[in-house]
Design brief:
The complex is a heterotrimer of chains A (286), B (263) and C (412). Chain B is mainly alpha-helical and 263 residues long. Chain B has helices at residues 2-24, 42-47, 50-83, 89-101, 104-118, 124-135, 137-150, 153-160, 165-193, 197-203, 210-220, 223-252; strands at residues 26-28, 38-39. Chain B has a single domain (39-252), classed as MetI-like fold. Chain B contains twelve helices and two strands. In chain B, strands 1-2 form a two-stranded antiparallel ribbon. The two termini of chain B are 31 Å apart. The longest helix of chain C is centred in the N-terminal third of the chain and has 21 residues, at 2-22. In chain C, α3 crosses α14 (326-336) and α11 crosses α18 (398-408). In chain C, α3 (57-75) links the parallel β1 (47-52) and β2 (78-83). Chain C is of the alpha/beta class. In chain C, strands 1, 2, 3, 4, 7, 11 and 12 form a seven-stranded mixed beta sheet that branches. In chain C, strands 9-8-10 form a three-stranded antiparallel beta sheet. The chains are: A mainly alpha (286), B mainly alpha (263), C alpha/beta (412). The interface between A and B is large, with 86 and 84 residues.
Chain lengths: 286, 263, 412
C-alpha cells in the first residue's frame, strides 16, 4: 500500500499523460507517411527527406531562432528588472502581471497593430508632434523583417511571466542573503548584482528556457505580425497544416515532428536547469 | 525610481486596455486624426445579444470546472512528487512540461482522433478534459513549491498526537495550502478561458466558449467588434479572477505567491 | 482515507470516459430522399448544424435572424449555426474518418473550391444530393457553369449553390478622381502614388484572387485554365511568367516597396480605412455598401472592377457524409435556394451576396423581388458585375500559383 501510494495519487495525471503521448504518437505516425484516412498506409522517410532538403526550412529555422532568442532575452531582462524593482510590493506585482496573462495572444496582436503600425497610435503621436508627414515615414514595426512587432508582443506577454517565476525566489533570497550582504556593508546595487541576482539565476534560466521554447513553437504572433518572408518555422508548419489537400498532411506533420524534437531538447535543458535550481534552493534555505 | 517604474508598468498594461475600449465604440478613425472621427454602438449592441450572454456564462462555467478539476488532480499529484520517491519521477517532470513546450498542433490533432474514438468529441466533458491537460502543469508546479515550503513536519507531529492521516492533512496542511489552491484555480481559469484552437478542435464548435466569439471577428478584421469582444473578454476574465482574489484576501489576509502562465 | 477518495475520483473520471465511449449513435431511419414528402416528415422537428466561416456579423445575423426562422416556419427545422473555418471543418471530417466515426456532428457545410475538391475526393461528402432538392430543380440551371464546375472541379451534385461572389476594388472618390480600369492603369496609378497600394500575401484568399486577376490581363488565361491537373512545374511557371513579371514591376510602387505584404486581407482593409492605402480589395461584391452603412468607410467610397473583368466564384453548401440529419440538411439547402432567402441575402444591409438563381427560371414577380432590393451606396449593380465576371482557375492550380508567387514576387 505504502509503495503504491504515490502511483494512486498520480493516477489521474497518468491517465492524462497517456492520452497526451498517444496523441503525439499519432502525429509522428502521420509524419512517417502512415495516414489511412488519406489512403497512405506505408511507412517512408521520403517526407522528411524532402522537407529537410529544402532551403526554406533553413531560413525559417534561423528566423524562428532569432525571434525567440531576442524576445526571450528581452523578456527575461525586463522580467528580472521588474522583479528587482517590485518584489517588495505585492500589489504592484499583481497589477503588472495579471492583465497581460488574461489577454490571449490574438488580442495582443490586435493591440500591437493598433499601437505600432504605420497608422497606429504612436505614428499619430509622431504626426501630431510634427515628426512625420505621412504614414510611410513612420518606421515599419509590424510585418517587418526584423520582427519588431512580434518581439514587442512576446515581451508584453512573457516579461510578466518571467517576473512571476523569478519574483518568488528573489523575495526569499533578498530578504535573507541580500539583507545579510547589506548588513555586511554592501551597497544596494552591489548586494543585488553580486548576491541576489546570482542566487536567482536558476529561476531566471528556467524561465528563459520556457519562454524561449514557447515562442519557438507558437504560430499566431509571427503569422499575424511577421513579414511575408522569411516565414517563421511554426507559421510554415501551420500553413502546411491548413493546406486543403490531405496528401499534404504528412509534410505538416514532419514540421511538427521537428518542432517536437526541439521541444524535447528544450525539456532536457529545462531539467538540467531545474536540477541546479533545486541545489540552489536547498542552499538558500539551509 | 520604483515609483516611475510602477507608473510605466501601469501605463504599459492599462493603455492597451483603454485603446480597446476606444476602438469598441469607434466607427471611423482615419489617419492622422488623434481621436476617432465617428462613434457607433454597433459593437456594444452585438455584445448585448442574448446568445452572447448565454455563451459567456457557459464559458465561465466550463473554465471554472476545468480549473477546479485541475487543482483537485494536482493536489495529490503535487504531494506525491514532493514527498515520495518513486520510479519515473523525473520522467513525470519532463512529461508535465509537454503541454507548454511542445507544438500544440502536434498533439491537438492526435487528441481529436483519440477523443473521437472515446466518443467524447463535441462534448463539454471532452473540452474540459483537454483544457485540464493544458492547465495541469501550472497547478502542479505551484503546489509542489508550496508543499515543499510548508513541509510535512507539522503534519507528522499531528500524527504522533494521534490524528488520522486524513485529519492531520485537512487540519494542518490544508489550511496552509488553501490560498495557493484558490490562486492556482484562478490561474487555471484564465488559461482555460483563453483557449481557442483546442476548444474548436475538441468541441467541434458545438461546445461554445467566449473565445470562439472573439477570435473570428479579429481574424476577419472587424475592428469595432474585435475590440468590443476583446474588451468584454478581458473584463469577464478579470472579474472572475478578481472575485476569487478578493475572497482569498478576505480569508487569508495575504496572497500566496503563484507563477503566471504563458498561454 | 484521502487516497481512497482520490482513487474514487479517478475511477469516476475513467468510467465517465468509457461510458461515453460506449454510447453508440442510434441508427437513423432509412429515408428515401427522392420522396420529398418523406424527407419533410423525417426532418420535422430536427436540428441541423450549419458549419461555416463566422467572421462577419452581417452573415451571422442573416443566418440567425432570417434563414433560421424561415426554416423553422416552413420545415419545422431548427438551424444551429456553428462558426468554424473551413480548414478546421475539413480537419474534423478527416478526424472522424480516421477514427471511423460514422456519427458526425456536422450536417451542412459552407464550402467551395479546393476544399470541396478535397472533401469530395476523400469521400467526406454525402451525395449526389442536388436532384433531391426541389428548389434546385425549380430555380437552378443545372447545365450552367456554376452548377457544374467549382474552381474548375466537377460538382456532380455534391454541393448546391449558396451565393455568388466577385472580386471588387474599393476606392475613395475624394482622393482619386477616376479609378483604374485595367491592370496596366493600376500600375500607372501606383507609379504616381508610390507606397499607397498593397495586397494580402497569398495564400491569403483575397490576395491570391488578386494575383489571378492580374494573370487574366497579362497571361493567356484560357490556356492557363486548360492546364491539366498534373502539369509539370516548368510549363506552369512559363504560363504565369508574364503575370509574375508584371507583379515584380508593380513591387517598387507598393507599400514598403513590395518587400513585405499584409498577412491578412483584414490588415490591408484596415490600412485603407485609415487612409494609408488608395485601394482595398474584397471578394465580397457589396463590401463597400456594407462598410459605408456601418460607418467604417467614408460615404465617398465606391467600388470598381477592371474592364477586362474580375474573378468571380460561387460558394456552395454540401452535406457531410456522416451527417446524422441528412433530411434536415436537405431542407436547409432547399430554403437557401428559395426566392425569399436569396433576395434577402442580396440586401447589403443584411449580407450583400449575389443570388444564384437562374433568371430564366424566375417568374416576373420573382424577378421584381430581386430588382426591388436596394444595393446601397457605392456598390456596382448586379448586371455590371456579371458582365465583367471571369471564371476562377482550376482549384489544383491555385496553391501552385501561390507557391510560385512566394518564390518570385516578394522582395524581388
Amino acid at each position: 500500500m505504502k509503495r503504491a501510494a504515490p502511483y494512486i495519487m498520480l493516477l489521474p495525471v497518468f491517465i492524462l499523460v497517456c492520452m497526451l503521448l498517444v496523441s503525439l504518437a499519432d502525429s509522428v505516425l502521420q509524419s512517417l507517411g502512415y495516414f489511412p484516412a488519406a489512403g497512405l498506409t506505408s511507412f517512408t522517410f521520403a517526407y522528411y527527406k524532402e522537407v529537410l532538403g529544402s532551403l526554406a526550412l533553413r531560413d525559417s529555422l534561423l528566423y524562428s531562432l532569432y525571434l525567440s532568442l531576442v524576445s526571450a532575452l528581452l523578456s527575461v531582462a525586463l522580467g528580472v528588472a521588474l522583479s528587482a524593482l517590485l518584489h517588495a510590493s505585492a500589489r504592484a506585482e499583481a497589477l503588472v502581471y495579471r492583465l497581460p496573462i488574461a489577454m490571449p495572444h490574438i488580442v495582443v496582436a490586435f493591440l500591437v497593430i493598433a499601437l505600432l503600425s504605420q497608422t497606429g497610435l504612436l505614428a499619430r503621436l509622431a504626426y501630431a508632434l510634427g515628426l512625420i508627414g505621412e504614414p510611410g515615414a513612420f518606421p515599419l514595426l509590424t510585418q517587418d523583417k526584423a520582427g519588431a512587432g512580434v518581439i514587442a508582443a512576446y515581451v508584453f506577454k512573457q516579461a510578466p511571466y518571467v517576473m512571476s517565476v523569478v519574483v518568488l525566489l528573489m523575495r526569499r533570497v533578498s530578504s535573507t542573503c541580500g539583507e545579510a550582504a547589506r548588513v555586511l556593508g554592501a551597497s544596494p546595487r552591489k548586494a543585488f548584482f553580486y548576491v541576489t541576482l546570482p542566487l536567482c539565476m536558476p529561476a531566471v534560466s528556467t524561465a528563459f528556457i520556457i519562454v524561449f521554447a514557447y515562442s519557438f513553437g507558437a504560430y499566431e504572433l509571427p503569422f499575424l505580425l511577421g513579414a511575408t518572408l522569411p516565414r517563421a518555422f511554426p507559421v510554415q508548419a501551420y500553413t502546411e497544416f491548413l493546406s486543403p489537400s490531405l496528401l499534404h498532411r504528412p509534410y505538416a506533420m514532419v514540421y511538427n515532428a521537428l518542432m517536437l524534437l526541439f521541444g524535447v531538447i528544450f525539456i532536457a535543458l529545462y531539467l538540467v536547469a531545474f536540477k541546479r535550481l533545486m541545489r540552489y534552493n536547498k542552499a538558500v534555505y539551509a | 525610481m520604483r515609483r516611475v517604474m510602477l507608473w510605466l508598468c501601469a501605463a504599459a498594461v492599462l493603455l492597451p486596455v483603454a485603446l480597446l475600449a476606444l476602438y469598441a465604440v469607434c466607427a471611423r478613425w482615419p489617419w492622422p486624426a488623434p481621436l476617432p472621427q465617428s462613434l457607433s454602438l454597433r459593437g456594444i449592441q452585438a455584445l448585448l445579444n442574448a446568445d452572447v450572454r448565454g455563451t459567456l456564462l457557459s464559458s465561465i462555467g466550463y473554465s471554472l470546472g476545468s480549473a477546479l478539476l485541475s487543482t483537485l488532480i494536482a493536489l495529490p499529484a503535487a504531494r506525491a512528487i514532493s514527498f515520495y520517491n518513486f520510479a519515473g519521477k523525473r520522467a513525470m517532470r519532463a512529461v508535465l512540461l509537454a503541454p507548454i513546450l511542445l507544438p500544440s498542433t502536434a498533439f491537438f490533432i492526435g487528441l481529436q482522433t483519440l477523443f473521437t474514438r472515446l466518443g467524447i468529441i463535441n462534448t463539454a466533458l471532452g473540452v474540459m478534459l483537454a483544457h485540464i491537460m493544458v492547465i495541469l502543469p501550472y497547478p502542479i508546479w505551484t503546489l509542489c513549491d508550496m508543499m515543499q515550503s510548508v513541509g510535512r513536519t507539522m503534519e507528522e507531529q499531528a500524527r504522533t498526537l494521534g490524528a488520522s492521516p486524513l485529519r492531520a492533512f485537512s487540519a494542518v496542511s490544508m489550511p496552509l495550502l488553501l490560498p495557493a489552491c484558490v490562486s492556482v484555480t484562478a490561474l487555471g481559469f484564465l488559461i482555460s478561458f483563453g483557449q481557442y484552437f483546442l476548444t474548436l478542435m475538441i468541441g467541434g464548435g458545438r461546445v461554445k466558449t467566449f473565445a470562439m466569439l472573439v477570435v473570428p471577428y479579429i481574424q476577419s478584421g472587424d475592428r469595432m467588434l474585435s475590440a468590443a469582444f476583446s474588451f468584454a473578454f478581458i473584463l469577464a476574465a478579470g472579474t472572475v479572477y478578481g472575485v476569487m482574489d478578493a475572497v482569498l484576501r478576505k480569508h487569508s489576509g495575504a496572497r500566496p505567491p503563484t507563477r503566471g502562465s504563458l498561454v | 482515507m484521502k487516497r481512497v477518495l482520490k482513487t474514487v475520483c479517478a475511477a469516476l473520471l475513467l468510467c465517465a470516459l468509457l461510458l461515453q465511449g460506449c454510447a453508440k449513435p442510434k441508427d437513423s431511419a432509412r429515408v428515401d430522399y427522392a420522396d420529398w414528402e418523406a424527407v419533410l416528415r423525417a426532418a420535422k422537428g430536427t436540428t441541423v448544424t450549419f458549419y461555416g466561416w463566422g467572421g462577419s456579423d452581417l452573415i451571422n445575423a442573416w443566418i440567425d435572424q432570417q434563414l433560421a426562422p424561415y426554416c423553422k416556419t416552413v420545415y419545422d427545422v431548427t438551424v444551429e449555426r456553428v462558426p468554424m473555418d473551413i480548414d478546421m471543418i475539413l480537419n474534423r471530417l478527416i478526424g472522424d474518418k480516421a477514427a471511423d466515426n460514422a456519427a458526425g456532428g456536422i450536417d451542412l457545410i459552407w464550402i467551395n473550391g479546393e476544399n470541396f475538391a478535397t472533401a469530395k475526393d476523400s469521400g467526406l461528402l454525402f451525395g449526389p444530393f442536388c436532384q433531391y432538392v426541389p428548389n434546385y430543380e425549380r430555380y437552378v440551371d443545372a447545365q450552367s457553369e456554376e452548377a457544374t464546375l467549382d474552381f474548375g472541379m466537377a460538382i456532380e451534385g455534391y454541393e448546391a449553390p449558396y451565393s455568388n461572389a466577385q472580386l471588387v476594388f474599393s476606392y475613395d472618390s475624394s482622393s482619386i478622381s477616376a479609378p483604374p480600369t485595367s491592370a496596366q492603369a493600376l500600375l500607372e496609378l501606383c507609379r504616381q502614388n508610390p507606397g499607397k497600394f498593397t495586397y494580402e500575401a497569398p495564400p491569403g484568399f483575397t490576395g491570391s484572387a488578386f494575383v489571378r486577376n492580374i494573370l487574366n490581363e497579362t497571361c493567356d488565361y484560357a490556356a492557363l485554365a486548360a492546364l491539366p491537373e498534373g502539369v509539370d512545374d516548368a510549363t506552369l511557371r512559363a504560363a504565369v511568367q508574364p503575370g509574375m513579371e508584371f507583379l515584380r514591376q508593380l513591387n517598387p510602387y507598393l507599400w514598403e516597396g513590395g518587400a513585405t505584404f499584409p498577412a491578412t486581407n483584414a490588415q490591408a482593409d484596415a490600412m485603407f480605412m485609415d487612409g494609408q492605402l488608395l485601394f482595398s480589395i474584397s471578394y465580397d461584391p457589396y463590401h463597400v455598401s456594407s462598410m459605408i452603412a456601418n460607418g467604417q468607410y467614408p460615404a465617398t467610397a465606391a467600388a470598381f472592377v477592371f474592364d477586362a473583368g474580375t474573378v468571380g466564384n460561387t460558394n456552395y453548401v454540401a452535406i457531410a457524409d456522416n451527417s446524422q440529419n441528412i433530411p434536415g440538411a436537405l431542407c436547409v439547402a432547399d430554403a437557401i435556394l428559395s426566392v425569399p432567402m436569396q433576395a434577402a441575402k442580396m440586401d447589403p444591409s443584411s449580407w450583400g451576396a449575389l443570388p444564384v438563381l437562374s433568371s430564366d427560371k424566375l417568374s416576373q414577380e420573382e424577378k421584381d423581388l430581386f430588382s426591388a432590393v436596394p444595393i446601397g451606396e457605392g456598390a456596382l449593380p448586379q448586371d455590371v458585375l456579371l458582365a465583367r465576371r471571369i471564371a476562377e482557375l482550376p482549384a489544383y492550380l491555385v496553391p501552385r500559383i501561390e507557391a510560385i508567387w512566394l518564390e518570385e514576387v516578394p522582395g524581388k
